[in-house]
Each structure stands twice: as structure tokens, then as C-alpha cells.
Amino acid sequence: MGIACYFQKNIGYILVVVMTFFFVACSSSSSLPQDASFDKAVFVSLTGNGNFEIFVLTGTNGEAAQLTDNPAMDWFPALSPDGTQIAFVSDRVGDDEIYVMDIDGTTQLNLTNNPGRYSGTTWSPDGTQIAFVSYHNGNYDIYIMNSDGSDLTNVTNSPANEYQVSWSPDGSQFAFYADGDNTKHTEIYTMNIDGTNVTRLTNNNAEETEPNWSPDGTKIAFTSKRDGNKEIYVMNVDGTDQVNLSNHKADDFNPVWSPDGKHIFFGSGRSSWSGIINSERYPSYLMNVDGSEQTRLPYHSWFEDICCLPINPSN
After folding, report:
1. Which of 87, 164, 275, 281 is the most exposed place for a label (fewest CB within 10 A)?
2. How many domains does the chain have?
3. How confident is the model at residue 114, as a pLDDT?
4. Closest CA to 313 of 212, 170, 218
5. Residue 237 in contact with residue 216, Cβ under 8 Å?
6. When comparing pLDDT for 192 and 205, which is higher?
């Protein structure tokens, strides 16, 4: 069994199967810092039947339970703020649709009923709405709908391609990246959830991707190639004070905040056991929010040689 890990490249979501370690699968003898722990996390695994299925892990050192089991691909899971539901993308009807299910895998419902390309599901902080990226009418746009699938709205509706929505903790804004403004690469933006007040935060001749809002709403972590390789950066929500946190020759990507905002999980192309960069393995790492104490997370025997990048920690 292998794990499917998410990262974005250029214009579009790419799902890549890599060999690494998923941070929620730490052994009991080598746990996460107490303030970086969580109650639940969801992830995607390539199972023995050759399909991507969704799993949930309860507790930092708990056991993983498989939630979906069908011939289709189930991926892009997002855990609701109250931990009771999971939104996800599935092509079980022949094309992508967005579904929601209970945390135990029951009551799987199709919310969109509109075949297309879907990805990047994320819940509003109050759990009443779901935002996502969809490809319709020739480009990727950001959409929003109620958590029961009603009131579907194209928020961006622009000729540019927008990707990976991160909802601000106060529920008023989105962070995302896009290929607009006549650039040949993607940049990080914010906007109100109704599509107004679009603000460009980065301005570099390089790919800027994977924005992730901090739990306290004051910072945005993101991935940048401005230094020639992918690095984890953090900035204020107005785009000021952009700082390279990872600062390593290998690619570092997909930053995810710990629930208390004191740590950042990320995937990396660095290979600590051999001391060289290895493009075929992507261990997960943990660091303090100032970039210090970058630590590769330990293997668990059950997850040896399989893994996933950190997805959707929730406390």
C-alpha cells in the first residue's frame, strides 16, 4: 500500500504518489511535541486494489481507519471544523464530484451533481460552507456552496486560473494562488469570500504556491521557488515581512500549521538518512514557526515506506 500526497505545480492540481512518511503516524515511543498534537487527521492512501481511498486517524499516535472502499478514486479530503464530517472529491459516477460523509464513513452524499474537475475542498470556520476549485468553462475558478450543496456560487469567475483555497480563521477571506496579472508564473492572493478586494501579496519571477492561513489569522505560510528551489516561507497577511523558514537546498513544500500555530509541518525532498537529496522519497518534517528545530518525523513500522504529507490536522 502506498500513500498519495498532494502538492501543486504550475497551473493545476497534481496528485503524486511518493514514498515518504505521514506525520500523524508517529510511534508511541517517538511522539510529536505535545503542543503539536491533534485529535483527528484525514489522508489518502493508494490501497491494494489500485484506488485512492480516504482514511482517518484519531489521535497523534492512534490507528488509521479506512472510510471509503469502492473502484473509484476518492481524494482531496477536508475535515469539518467540528470533526464530524469529511468533504472529498470522487469520480465514482464517471467524473469528479464533491461528496460529504460522516467521520465514520457513513452517509456519503454527492453535493455537486455537476460532473467536472474538482479539487482543494475546504470548510468555512463555522462549518456551514465549503469552498473548492473547479474546472468549468475553460479555466479553474474558486467556488463556494453551503455544506448541503445548495447555493453554489462561482466566486472568482475570471479568465485566470485560481488554485488551492485557504479560508481565513475569521471566515471573511480566502488565500489562494493564481496565474493572473499577465504573469508567466503563479502568485499568492487574498480576497473577500464574495470575490471582492482581490489583493496580490507576492511579486516575484518565480512560482508562489500553497498558501495556508495561520490559526490566529495573522500569517500565511506558502511555498516559493524564488531561491531556485521550493522553500517554505511565511508572511504577514498583507504580504509584508516575507521570510524563508526552511532554507534548504532540497525542495520543501506543502506547509501545514499545527492547531496551536506554534509549528509548521511540511514535506521535503531532503533525505536525512542518506544525507543527499532523493527525488523519490519525501519525508515529512516539523519546525518551529521561526524556522528553527527542523526535525524529520519518525517512521512507524506500519507506515514504513509509505506515507502522506500532512493534511487537515484538527483539534
Report:
1. 275
2. 1
3. 84
4. 212
5. no
6. 192
* 249: in domain: yes
CATH of the domain at 7: 2.120.10.30
Q: What are 226's three cell numbers?
A: 524564488
Contact status, residue 139 vs residue 159, Cβ threshold 8 Å: yes
Query: What cell does 139 get?
Result: 479555466
Check residue 248 and give left, alpha or beta (phi > 0: left; psi -120 to 50: alpha).
Answer: beta
276-277 and 281-282 strand pairing: unpaired
Q: Within its chain, how far is the Cα of 160 from the centroid?
A: 21
Query: Distance between CA 58 and CA 145 in Å, rounded?
Result: 28
pLDDT, mean over the chain? 78
Q: What is the pLDDT of residues 186-196, one digit of tens each?
A: 999 999 999 99
pTM for the whole structure:
0.80
Interatomic CA distance for residues 144 and 133, integer angstroms: 9
Type of residue at 300: H
